[in-house]
Amino acid sequence: MKKYQDHYFKQAKKDNYPARSVYKLQEINKRFGILRPGQKVLDLGAAPGSWTLFAAKVVGQGGKVLGVDLQSTATDFPANVRFLVGDVFEPPVEVQAALEELAPFDVVVSDMAPKTSGIIFRDQAFSFDLCVRALEVADKHLAKGGNFVAKIFEGPDVKQFAAMLRERFNTVKNFKPQSSRSESKETFYIGLGFKGAPEAPAQDQIPV
């Protein structure tokens, strides 16, 4: 198992990616074709930048990638990437301006994960919350027909998240890449063909 893990770590160094997580997105893209040349991509939880770099490579110079993370990164990005430090859920002025400038995005991806505590139920609940909030960002900024990817820790909330995706996308898939560690609880949900956010139910009017 150690040898298997080291393969992806060493390959990432060889391919000039800052983290082995790049191969998860690569596998997802190979399987589902979420990324294409010329697209605009929003990468949530982008540091250290492997997914951002891979997306930039696929979309090419005719495309754009906006990466946002709470943490900065020393990664050098190509000209078609803008990386900003900030909270995408409560965006500072610079992040909000970039979102408004580039939206709607063709693809929104999230490799976000909570800081793990070792308490499985707690970690999964926080992972679910991040996924729901990433989906809320997609509701605002994803183009009709667009694609969405989010990492979630397996647990009781996964079915609820899948149901939320089915309300919004023509096709929903669950996929665990080979490059994920076998002992990892992570899995990825892919939404293809964004239909738009569901309308909020009308609130009962209270007579005055």
From TrEMBL:
The EC number on file is: 2.1.1.166
InterPro entries registered for this protein in UniProt: RNA_methyltr_RlmE, RNA_MeTrfase_FtsJ_dom, rRNA-MeTfrase_E, SAM-dependent_MTases_sf
Q: Is this entry keyworded rRNA-binding?
A: no
The UniProt GO MF terms for this protein read: rRNA (uridine-2'-O-)-methyltransferase activity
The catalysed reaction is: uridine(2552) in 23S rRNA + S-adenosyl-L-methionine = 2'-O-methyluridine(2552) in 23S rRNA + S-adenosyl-L-homocysteine + H(+)
Name its cellular compartments. Answer: Cytoplasm
Return the broad EC class: transferase
Where the record annotates domain Ribosomal RNA methyltransferase FtsJ, the positions are 17-194
Q: What is its main location?
A: cytoplasm
Superkingdom of origin: Bacteria
Q: Which residues form a coiled coil?
A: none
Q: Which UniProt keywords apply?
A: Cytoplasm, Methyltransferase, rRNA processing, S-adenosyl-L-methionine, Transferase
One GO cellular component, as annotated: cytoplasm
Residues binding S-adenosyl-L-methionine, per UniProt: G49, W51, D69, D87, D111
Q: Which residues form the active site?
A: K151 (proton acceptor)
**Protein family according to the UniProt entry:** Belongs to the class I-like SAM-binding methyltransferase superfamily. RNA methyltransferase RlmE family.
- What job does this protein perform? Specifically methylates the uridine in position 2552 of 23S rRNA at the 2'-O position of the ribose in the fully assembled 50S ribosomal subunit.
Q: Can you say what this protein is called?
A: Ribosomal RNA large subunit methyltransferase E
